[in-house]
Amino acid sequence: MTDIRFHINGEEHIVPRKFPATTSLNDYLRETAGLKGTKVMCREAGCGCCAVSVTHLPPDSNTLKTYSVQSCLTPLYAVDGWQVTTVEGIGSQREGFHPLQERIAKFNGTQCGYCTPGMVMNMYGLLHQKPSISAQEIEDNFDGNLCRCTGYRPILDAMKSFAEDANIPNRKPIDIEDLNKKLCPKTGDECSNSCATRRLDLQLNGVSWFRPVSLEDLGELMKANKTRKIRLVYGNTSTGIYKTDGPFDVYIDLHGVKELYSFETSQNMVRLGAATTLTQLLERLRGHQNKPGFKYFSQMYKHVKVVANVMVRNSGCIAGNLMIKHRHNEFPSDLFTLMAGAGAEVEIICTDTGLKIVATMQDFLSKVDMLNKVISAVLLPSLPDNVVYRSFKITPRWQNAHAYINAAFRIPFTAQTIQGRPSIVLGGINSKTIHATKTEEFLTNKSLSLAVVKEAYSILRDELVPTENPLEASPKYRKDLASSLLYKVLLGLNTSRNPKLWSGSESLHRPISSGLQTYQEMAEEFPLKQGLPKMTAPLQASGEAVFVNDMPKFQHELYAAMVVTDQGSAILESVDASEAMKLPGVTHFFSSKDIVGENNYKVSSGFFQFPVHELFVSNEVFYAGQPVGLVLAETQALALEAAKKVKVTYKEVSPPVLTIWESLAKDMEFKDARINRVVGNPEEAWESVDQKVEGNISMGSQYHFYMESQVSLAVPSEDSIDLYAATQFGDMCQHAAANVIGKPLNYINITVPRLGGGFGGKSWDTCAFSAAATLAAYLTGRPVRLYLDMASNIHICGKRAPFVAKYKAGCSSDGNIQVIDLDLMMDAGYTAHGAWYLSDCLNLVDMGYYIPNWTIQGRSFRTNKKTMTAVRAPGSVPAALVIETILEHVAKAVKRHPVAVKGLNLYEKNQVDLRGQELIHCNMKEVWRRLKDTAEVEGRLKQIDAFNQENLWKKRGITMTACKYAICFFGPGHGATVSIYGRDGSVAVSQGGVEMGQGLFTKVAQGVAHILGVPLDNVKVKPNQGIISPNSLVTGGSIASEVAMQAAISAAEILKERMRPIKEKFPEASWKELCDKCVWSKIDLCARVLNSPDMGSPANYHTYCAAVTETEVDILTGESQVRRVDIMADYGESLNPVIDIGQTEGGFVMGLGNYLTEDTIFDSRTGRILSDGTWNYKPPTTKDIPIDWRVHLLPDTPNPSGIRSSKASGEPSIGLSVGALLANKLAVQAARKDLFGSEEFIPVVAPFTVERAQQSVGLDESVLAL
């Protein structure tokens, strides 16, 4: 019995045995060590924001090893004897920033900054593993870090600037001295036994934690505890997937068992110890891939590189992965498929008897009971030279995703003939299928011919019986995909094939990404209109930027967790919290009965009028995930555990209405929200058109995926409550908090430090969590912190509104559109508030194109879902999909390329748009023309046409998209207070806008520094506080940065004018002397201005931008990649072009997610969201961005209607990314023309996933060729 000991940033921590065995390293770092730079979000090893580096001595080595891990899944008790380095430990503003922190800040690689510490620490561990590193290796190893803000390009550029071969300005490899700060000085060198792994025997409140140091020791422990439920622990990564496994009585940490680390080779076999990590597996595969009999290791190496992500591969071992498959046969284990395909065997030790058995992979899965047994090794055989080994993993996105299906083929092949029986192993079909036995039998000893290929394709498709699962691809796609992969392999075996077929056997290859940015600065106004990184970027990179959940724990603080419904349409019968309250440390449960004010968090005021949204359900349940109450406990983990024990019962349960079509059938339209609009004279226009097209469009629902989940902290004070909220709308949160406890607004002191991403998702929904935390603090008299876990966040909060549209368009013979009839139906959720986004969409549906005649009908429908909410550009995202689809359809009908047809329909200066506004300053055509020339579109059209003629199974598409984005200065605006401290001349600014990554604070500081003529670092912008900036508008609609900055500029101008007489009296005085003289001259050096610009009619101005998007599609699988994107944007005289380009790139990539990979999946029986974590919800990663990405800001275009001649940049670019969907569809249509002679237009569905792309082709065996 002992306490565990380890070092954090060079400081020893002795940890008593008071923590549960399930406590993670992240829990300890944040809650006990107080190191909040390490963030937390998914707790699934899926986002990377919790990354730290660890250093320890493996039992099979005398050299300390350092690598990065996800601290959210790393068990606390597993790090005994280790060194842990967090982002605080490598650099800070006090001790100096680390080169990694400096570099990512300098490259503008941070926006909200919540993901940044994880990015830094992933790279820190990577450089420890390989200080001399290539750009390709860096890009390959950022597969486990998600960022919703930046679009990844500047992050990758910053990290690749450490590569020896990178073509990056200011490239400089890491200095080895910068890697070993606060680490043992012997790191990387030989080490004595003082660092050796020690045996552990810990008793933790009835649960045992052991760390054996030998295989014999392990066997004794397992025998001694054979009647208890045992969990063998190594990487612990499976808990991110299967969260309900357990509870366990005994945990046995395998890090100290030397025998499990063995590595042996011979001519016939490679033996890999069970504790071989996936990272070590990669090293060993690469090290032996050129040896006779093991050349198939090169294929394995490529495949293992896309298993999970780098930090999971660093932590997880091969035996652990295989045991996940053993416990959960449905798990699509890539390792199992790879190894079974190679004919590998598993070496297993029976701890009861000490006997060793060797089993095939299939027997291991289906015949071996692993109770009281442990995997000791995996045996990989050598293969004859004539054996072809191929493997595949087809996923929803490029990396860090489990497979739709995976496959491994082992085929002995000589002289166009299969020699004997091939092996075809498939994962992701069902829990039973391993080998495609009928297909194997058919292909045995077959000579390769087209007839054989077609028959094998058909047999494989027919013998597979995929399970139905709403979270997986359709059974049909998985059958078709398996057959396509077989065809790829057989096509690759054929030596005399048509060159047009060559690309079919290969997978898509993605080269290293690159970027180019061009912009104009205005030197006469510096530091305003200068391209600068965010001022707080270094603090974000060092983990010193404080988010709400990073605030230190208050005395007597309680943690809260929401209790939510799991039925979507019912009457609440009862809520029983008695079992939860029995848990030691659980203190309170509150429900609607405890609300002392009004049970409504969506409070109305002025422009924002909302229907009632109950904080806690009182009677009718409207959606699954609706809060019914709040549990309070002494720890966050305990609160979450208690919330699951609250029993909610229902009556009058009915099937939930989850689609527009279901709502339409039940006549559940919000008819008061219906929109009917006629523009021009459509009836007359229809009589004169040459061509008509009609079709349907649909789009799913996108989750915001901000990295910082919803959080509020309420702290009682002597006569009020101090509320700290991560919100875009502090004024409304303040109102909601006061409303729920029946107090005036001055009872609530609200502070908004910063947001870890918002995207509209922290506009209204945040009010519920601020209200709940405030209610709990008010009733208990104790501070209450409410931080939602990721799943709760997804279940409770609103999302982007799904829609379906029917359209009919009429055009001239060359594609000039004269008239459109549009019927757009939107899913509003359970209240009519969701209908707001229908109006927004229909106001923007013309986007960059002039259509003189419209008939528009818009309808909103009630469903059993949370009320839909604002998600970045809530109107223009569906609008872009609608109008761009119509234009593409028209182009197909008139047999012209969409680029030509779109260019024909662009807005021109002085035309009147859909809402009746004359576009006096329209430069849409100029933006389009310059972009088309810059991006060399005409030449690339010819290149793509040639590529498509030369390749049957790979196709490319290219298109252009245009955006006219209406910017409207709505609401009361934002105020700013500028204070100059006379003693030293430093300047502080407080204003009403919220910093959430868009660079608002930096732009405000730039404006103030410019007016006052002081250095930028002389100005600090303080967190938003309601007492200083009351009645502020929501930070949204892309306008807050400009409005707040102008308020601060106006206040600075007031101060400058006040100081002018003193400046004239003392012209030689320095700034510091001038400020001091002003104070003693009784001049007030504090000024406040409310900037409330007049609202446009209907818009103040428009932002114009356009994009060229080129993609490539693997027709056999549906996989695609964005080869190149060029963007041209008119942002007037950009207030900060570097920040505005960051907004452009981040918006574009978020749009890629909406149009290609992201959707929300519901349980049709209950209405519960199933895609509630990183395992099943897939935003883009670093390899989903454009490979070649060029962004240009249009020069010499001051905006006469904007603030300081600028334009807003936050939202316009997101709709441009619909071009990726449409380019993929053009590629699919090119394939259909080749294969079937089809000229039909494929209906548009977003997201246009890998599955949808492949299924749109309509492949069958009749079109196969050799």
UniProtKB/TrEMBL annotation:
Residues that hold FAD according to the record: K393
GO molecular function: 2 iron, 2 sulfur cluster binding; FAD binding; iron ion binding; oxidoreductase activity
Residue sites binding [2Fe-2S] cluster 1 per the record: C42, C47, C50, C72
Active site residues according to the UniProt entry: E1211 (proton acceptor)
Domain of life the protein comes from: Eukaryota
Cell wall biogenesis/degradation found in the keyword field: no
Cofactor: FAD; Mo-molybdopterin; [2Fe-2S] cluster
InterPro entries xrefs: 2Fe-2S-bd, 2Fe-2S-bd_dom_sf, 2Fe-2S_ferredoxin-like_sf, 2Fe-2S_ferredoxin-type, Ald_Oxase/Xan_DH_a/b, Ald_Oxase/Xan_DH_a/b_sf, Ald_Oxase/xanthine_DH-like, AldOxase/xan_DH_MoCoBD1
Positions of the FAD-binding PCMH-type domain: 202-385
Binding sites annotated in the UniProt record for Mo-molybdopterin: Q728, F759, R872, G1037
Note on how the cofactor is bound: Binds 1 Mo-molybdopterin (Mo-MPT) cofactor per subunit. Binds 2 [2Fe-2S] clusters.
Residues that hold [2Fe-2S] cluster 2 according to the record: C112, C115, C147, C149
Keywords: 2Fe-2S, FAD, Flavoprotein, Iron, Iron-sulfur, Metal-binding, Molybdenum, NAD, Oxidoreductase
Keyword flag Phosphoprotein: no
Similarity-based family: Belongs to the xanthine dehydrogenase family.
Name the record gives this protein: FAD-binding PCMH-type domain-containing protein
Organism annotation: Elysia crispata (lettuce slug)
